[in-house]
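Action item from last week, closing it out:
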Amino acid sequence: GTGADNDLYINQAVVFIEDAIQYRSINHRVDSRSLWLYRWYYSRACQWILSLTITIILALAFIEKPSSLTITSDVRYRLPAWNPPCGLTESIELLCLLVFMVDVSVKSYLIGWEEFWKNKWLVAYILTLIVSLADWIVSLSFFCTEDVRIRRILRPFFLLQNSSMMKKTLKSINSTLPEMASVVLLLAVHLSLFTMFAMLLFARTKDGQQDKEWVVYFRNLPDSLTSLLVLLTTANNPDVMIPAYSKNRAYSIFFILFTVLGNLFLMNLLTAIIYNQFRGYLLKSVQSSLFRRRLGIRAAFEVLSSLRETPANTQQPHVSFGALVQVLQKVEMDSRCKQAIMRSLEMCSCDQLSAAQFQKLFEELDKDAIKQHPPSPEYQSSFMQKMQFASGHPYFGYLGNVVALANIVSICVVLVMDADKQPSERDDFFLGAINCFFILYYLLEMLLKILAMGLKRYLSYPSNRFDGLLTVILLVLEVATFAVYGFPHPGWRPEFLGLLSLWDMVRLVNMLIVFRFLRIIPNMKFMALVVTTLLDLVKNLRAFAGILVVVFYAFAITGIMLFKGAVVPLGNISAVNTTYGNGTLQCGTYEQLEYWPNNFDDFAVMKNVISWLSLVTFRLRLFTAYLLSVNLICRWAKIYFVAWWLISSVIWVNLFVALLLENFIHKWDRRCHREPISDIEYQRTVELMFRDVLEEPTEEELMEKLHQHPHLQLCR
């Protein structure tokens, strides 16, 4: 009947508006039962359960065999780890897989089976679940004793498929790979040619004493390739050329040419090509998100215009005031946006809304989220008004920065003067006195600011909360120090009077006051622009961070499967060149440097090893040297670490630089001439960063897309 149809249209409009708010696709079933299921699936509770399930299945790697539940990862001192009994983690994993099966079933039903086969991600989702379940059954059949578990490598896929932004980012990276491959191929040619030259240039001679370059670095083709590849990362520079350079300084020309061509030209050329190909990626993604939002709002308008209460004699479709109010009451959206839309709707005198008016109402979703600080208190006393004026003046903040600088300088001067003194010769009276003075000033500054601004307004600023927390911590530690050690006096050395030196803690916390200087950033226009741009990027680049987590996880699990148990201690030794058995540990090798904690035996340590290889210049030789000593196949170790270096240091870092440049240049042009507003904070998202350069979709584009909806039949 008419009432049932109207309820359906209202519910459809509610779901379409919620899709627009979250930038979701509207290509899903729109019957009453499907709409209820759709809203239930995207409810906070269901999405929280799904996110928790993904977190749990990824975290299983820390406790399942090989377990990371040990105090240390050093193979010399590590006690046997507790490994859960067979079936414990497998039961948890099965529950997670069942949740994913429900997830993919609901998604597949909601979009329809015809659309399902067009969605590659959902097909891959089902295949991943099938492989994981099959591997889970194999695991139980072997009583959890097998070392290779394919499903562990596939687990990051569950994180990847759950984020639309991560999927868009991955798609863009995939489109950039052909151009990156051409430069990587050029790097390979460069490396191969110089490897041939090196093997000819540093060939073995009759004089064994002069063949150190050949023995250590260029003995054969794999060693030569490895040495030059590490030189490309500058990790073994200048070690690799020292033997030859000691023999003849002209040999340095070879290494200089290799480094200049490879590092300065080819690596930077790779950055330029990636930036050129990746430029515009985020803008296109945000443009697509804007189209989804406009399409969702227009779909809501179209279904509401089909209500029976809409006048039939109108030439253009309209939506009634009451229908929109009814929809807004059901929609889950930010209260700020809902209140703004309701205010705009009440200010509108018309009872019917056209498509343009309807769309304009929901442009409130595109505006910046504004956080206004509470007002300052109003005092009647003239003295309090003067105190409020003085404490709230910008110069009072500048004075606080100057005092903080003086605090830091005084601590540094005292530490430098006492650096060469014996502990018994030190006198901490001066440092204790100045610390007491500065802490009292910080306390006075905090109280005066609270007096001038009021407690609520004072706490509404993050910088004030940080300063206040530091001040309270300093004050508590100072009082505790005086209670234990007494007041500062000549010859005062509190570090000798107790087991826990509170005085050292006070000095460390005092150094945190250096962050007070971050408050000068808003007063410097271009510095503020740089910092706010970086902060916005950090907050909004979750997709890149998510894909990095996926790659980290997959490489860590693969490393455990390949190299678990490879690092075996030779004994508790530490020497420059130590004889062990019949051999001698060479200086600079894995054993001599005692890198025993960096092994491949569990997930936690592999995560650290992978991070270490990413952040520190490529230490490939330290790992492959030890893998050789335990008779592993060296090429597998080299392939593994070279692959990780290519993905993390070459491809991923350059992709991040490209995205950083694009966002920074755009925001620099946008905000360079904007005047700061001191009392209002704009909380921007990545979509709002590009709002002024996005193109609005046309009426024809929206209607054409709506008519292609697989489950929605429009009346016109």
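Closing note: The first strand starts at residue 319 and ends at 320.
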